[in-house]
DNA sequence: GCTTAGAGTTCACTAGTTGGACATAGACGG
DNA sequence: CCGTCTATGTCCAACTAGTGAACTCTAAGC
C-alpha cells in the first residue's frame, strides 16, 4: 500500500491484472494477455519478462501450432497455499498452488475431545507431511487458510464458544498456527469456507452470489455476495440455523424455540429414530438407510428437507441468491432431501425470487471446507503477496 | 473506461480521489488534500488547478487564520442531481448538488388512479419548476434518480406489477423520464432508495451495512451492504414482507399464508380496527390515536411491532446488519412500535447478532425516498461523470 | 520458394507523479 | 516595528511507466 496514486501503484495493478488474466485462463500468449487486459503489447512484454524473472510465471517456448506464440502460465511453484480444516470428526489439509490446482490433500480422524494443543500438533504434523510429500519449497508458502467449526471473530481471531470442539473457546487459532508454521494464517468458520470452496471448485462455479447451507450437528450458512464472503458487520451473518420457524416449537440450544436447527440438525433429528432404529445412528447412517429405501429414514429426511426449505425460502426472499448449495452429510441424500427443499422454497418464497433460484447438492462433499480454506488463502493475499515476492526477486536483476 | 491500466486512468483515479476527499470533508486546503489522499503536494497542486479550470471546484483565497491556506471546496453548481419519487399518495422532487447539499425539495399529492403519462407530466412539470426556482443551469444536471413504488428490474428498467400504481405495469419509467428531461435517469424501488437516503442523510450515517424496513400498504426492506444497495442477482432482494411467520396464518396477496405482511401491512391491519374505530382509518390515523393513548390502537401497533421484530430477527440472523431503520408512516409511532420490535428481536435473534444491532426510527420521514433518489443519482455517476465534464472543459485550456 | 500474417521486441515519445528548491505570508518573539 | 520561523502553494528537473510504430521472427499457405 506504499503510495497509492503513484505510477508504481499503477504498475503493480497492471502486474496483478496480468497475473489474474493468466490464472483465469490457465495459459495465454502475450498477445492474448494484451487483448484481455487492454494493455498494449509492449507493456505486456515488459510485465511478462518481469514476472518471468521473478519466477511467478513460466514461459513455454512454443506450445501448439501457431506462428510463434509463447504461452505464458503461472509457474506451479510460484507460490503455495495451504488449507487446514478442523471439522467435527476430521482434520483435513490440502496443498495447492497459485494456479488454483490442488497438489495434495489428506484427512485424518480428529478426536473430538482433543485439546487445542493436541489439535494443532496434529495439524502441524500433517501439513509438514504433505509439504514433504509434494516436495514443494517451504519458502514458497504464501499463506494458510484455516477453517474452524464455530463462530470466530475474524477481526480479533478469537474463537467463540463451540459445542463441537469444547475447550477451544477463547483460543486464537490463526495466531497459534502462524506461530507454528511461520506464515500468514487467515481464519474463518467452516460454513463460510464451504461456501467459498463450492464457489471456486464446486457447484457454485460461474456464480457470484451463493448461499452454502451446511447441515451437520448444527445448521449454518455461508454467504458469498459479489464473489466475497459476507460476514456482516458483527461477523455472525449466515446463522440460518436459528431462524424461527415455529414460535412454540422445541427449545433450541440457543435458548429460543422452534429454530430451524431443532427441525434439521442431527442432534435434534437423530433421537426421532432412536426407538425404531437404535441409538448408534449417525446422520450418515440415516442417509444410507434412506437411499436403501428405509421408509422411516426417508420420511425423516424429507421432513428435514421441508424445514430447510422454509429457511431457504426466507433467505431467498431476503437475499435472493441465484444459487443455494447444500453441504454436509445430508447432501448425500440427493433428491431425497433436495426435492422437499425445492418444494418448500416454491411454496414459501415469493415466486419471482424462487423462479431463478437453483438448489444444488455440494459437489465437493466433505472436502468443501478444506478447499475453501485454500481459496481463502488465495483470496486473502489477493495476488499481492505473489507480486511482492516478484518485486523483491525482480528488482535486483534490474540494477 | 477508455484504457484501463494506462497513465491517464491513473490520473483520472487521482482526480476522483481528490474530489472524494474534498466532498467528504466539505472543504480542505491543498496540504490537507495531499495528506489525506497520500498524493504529493505538487500533484495536488496540478489536480486542483485542473479541477478549478473545469469548474468542478472552487478555491476561496483564504478562509480562517492560517498561514496562507486556500481552502478548496466543491463548487455548488459544478453538477446538479435530481431525485424524483413516486410514492403511494405523493410525488416528490428534490434538487441537490454534488456537495451532497439539498437545494430545493417539494412534494405534491399524486392521484393514485393517474395514468403513467399523467404522472410523468406532473413529474416533469415539478422538476422544471424546481429548476427554475433554484436558478440552476439546466446543462449542469448530471443525473436523475427515480423511485417507483414497486418491483422494478433494474437491468431492463421494466416495472413489474404494482398494486399501488396500477396501470404502470410494464412501463419503463427511467426511459420515459429520460426522454422528457434529456439526462441519464437511474431507477430503483422505493425501499432501496429509502435505505440509501437514510444511509446518507438520516439515521444510517456512519454505517456501512443497513436494512431499511418500510411499512406502508406493504412491507419491504432495502438492504445496503458495504455502502451499496444490494439487489441480489435477480433484483428482488429485501422482500422481508413475505417471510413466512406462521404457516397456517392468513392468506397473503402473494398467495402464501402467514407472511409478515399479513401481520404488519396497513391493508391487513386496518380492518382489525374497523368495527371499533370506523372504516376511514389510515395508518397515520392509527399512529396518531395510539400516541394520544387509544388502547386499541396501541395494542395493534405493539402487535405489528412484535411481528416486524420477528422478521427483523430473521434478517438479523442471516445478514447481521449493524443497524435497522424503520421507515414509513409507522415510524412516527416511535417507541410504541420500536419497543416491541426490539423485544422480538431480543427474543428471536441469536444473542451475539442481536447485541450489536440498533433499531432506529427513520430520521427523514417521507423524505427518505426522494433523498435516496438523489443519493442514487450521485452514486450511480460515481464521481466519474463529474470528472468527465471536468476533462472536457479542462483539456481545451491546455492546448 | 515467396508471400503473408500474427507474435513478440525494441525504441523514441509522452503522460504524469515526485522531490526539492523557491516564493509567500501570517505568527511569534524581541 | 522588524526579523525569524513555519507551513502553504508553485515551479522545475528527474524519473517512472505505458504507448505507438517500426522491426524481426516464424510458420502457414499458395
TrEMBL record, chains A, B:
Family note: Belongs to the ROK (NagC/XylR) family.
PROSITE patterns registered for this protein in UniProt: ROK
GO molecular function: DNA-binding transcription factor activity
PANTHER family, sorted: GLUCOKINASE (PTHR18964:SF173), ROK (REPRESSOR, ORF, KINASE) FAMILY (PTHR18964)
Pfam families: MarR_2, ROK
Listed name of the protein: Transcriptional regulator
Domain HTH marR-type span(s) in chain numbering: 18-68
Amino acid at each position: 500500500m506504499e503510495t497509492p496514486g503513484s505510477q508504481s501503484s499503477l504498475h503493480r495493478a497492471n502486474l496483478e491484472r496480468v497475473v489474474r488474466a493468466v490464472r483465469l485462463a490457465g495459459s495465454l500468449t502475450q498477445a492474448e494477455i494484451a487483448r484481455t487486459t487492454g494493455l498494449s503489447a509492449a507493456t505486456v512484454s515488459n510485465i511478462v519478462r518481469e514476472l518471468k524473472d521473478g519466477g511467478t510465471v513460466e514461459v513455454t517456448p512454443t506450445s501448439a501450432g501457431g506462428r510463434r506464440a509463447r504461452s505464458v502460465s503461472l509457474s506451479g511453484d510460484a507460490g503455495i497455499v495451504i488449507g487446514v480444516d478442523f471439522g467435527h470428526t476430521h482434520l483435513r489439509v490440502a496443498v495447492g498452488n497459485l494456479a488454483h490446482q490442488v497438489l495434495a490433500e489428506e484427512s485424518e480422524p480428529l478426536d473430538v475431545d482433543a485439546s487445542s494443543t493436541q489439535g494443532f500438533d496434529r495439524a502441524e504434523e500433517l501439513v509438514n507431511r504433505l509439504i514433504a510429500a509434494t516436495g514443494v519449497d517451504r519458502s514458497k508458502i504464501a499463506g494458510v487458510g484455516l477453517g474452524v467449526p464455530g463462530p470466530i471473530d475474524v477481526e480479533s481471531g478469537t474463537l467463540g464458544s463451540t459445542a463441537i470442539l469444547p475447550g477451544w473457546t477463547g483460543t486464537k487459532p490463526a495466531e497459534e498456527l502462524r506461530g507454528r508454521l511461520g506464515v500468514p494464517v487467515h481464519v474463518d468458520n467452516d460454513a463460510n469456507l464451504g461456501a467459498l470452496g463450492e464457489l471456486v471448485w464446486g457447484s457454485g462455479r460461474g456464480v457470484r452470489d451463493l448461499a452454502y447451507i451446511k447441515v451437520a450437528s448444527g445448521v449454518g450458512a455461508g454467504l458469498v455476495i459479489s464473489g466475497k464472503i459476507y460476514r456482516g458487520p458483527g461477523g455472525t451473518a449466515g446463522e440460518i440455523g436459528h431462524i424461527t420457524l415455529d414460535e412454540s416449537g422445541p427449545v433450541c440450544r440457543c435458548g429460543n424455540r422452534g429454530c430451524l436447527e431443532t427441525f434439521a440438525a442431527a442432534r435434534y433429528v437423530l433421537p426421532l429414530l432412536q426407538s425404531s432404529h437404535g441409538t448408534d445412528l449417525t446422520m450418515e447412517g440415516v442417509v444410507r438407510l434412506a437411499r436403501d429405501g428405509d421408509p422411516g429414514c426417508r420420511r425423516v429426511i424429507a421432513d428435514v428437507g421441508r424445514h430447510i426449505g422454509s429457511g431457504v425460502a426466507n433467505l431467498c426472499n431476503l437475499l435472493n441468491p441465484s444459487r443455494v448449495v447444500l453441504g454436509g452429510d445430508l447432501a448425500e441424500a440427493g433428491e431425497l432431501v433436495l426435492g422437499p427443499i425445492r418444494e418448500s422454497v416454491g411454496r414459501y418464497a415469493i415466486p419471482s425470487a424462487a423462479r431463478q433460484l437453483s438448489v444444488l447438492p455440494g459437489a465437493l462433499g466433505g472436502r468443501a471446507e478444506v478447499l475453501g480454506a485454500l481459496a481463502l488463502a488465495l483470496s486473502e493475499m489477493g495476488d499481492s503477496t505473489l507480486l511482492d515476492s516478484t518485486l523483491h526477486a525482480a528488482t535486483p536483476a534490474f540494477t
